[in-house]
Amino acid sequence: MEIKNENYGGFIVSKNIIYGKSIRYSFREKSSIPQLNGWNFYAIDEDEEYISNSDNFIILSAKSMYDINPIILALFHAPYGTDLCWLYENDIHVGFYDLKLEREFSISEILNRINKKR
Fold it and tell me: Where is the Immunity protein Imm33 domain (predicted)?
């Protein structure tokens, strides 16, 4: 799959994800920096002290995010305000818990929701 980074902008990502920890939370907010797309990703087991330190985060391209988990680019068009907890069974990503709607969604359900809004 050819990924054109300029079509996506930068993702803010916890360095723990780069070091191999699973994604636990992702949310999208409108960015005041045009080069960023508003997506933020936190890893499992990060406390308030960790996430309060901007040195613990890095900006990644779409290609790098795809390499971490291809589902991320499928989620890309979710609207600003999307707030997801990533769910796992036996260390395998199986779905999401939408923190705004307060309910679980399978990966296919959330992709269908996003595609219907496009």
Answer: 12-84
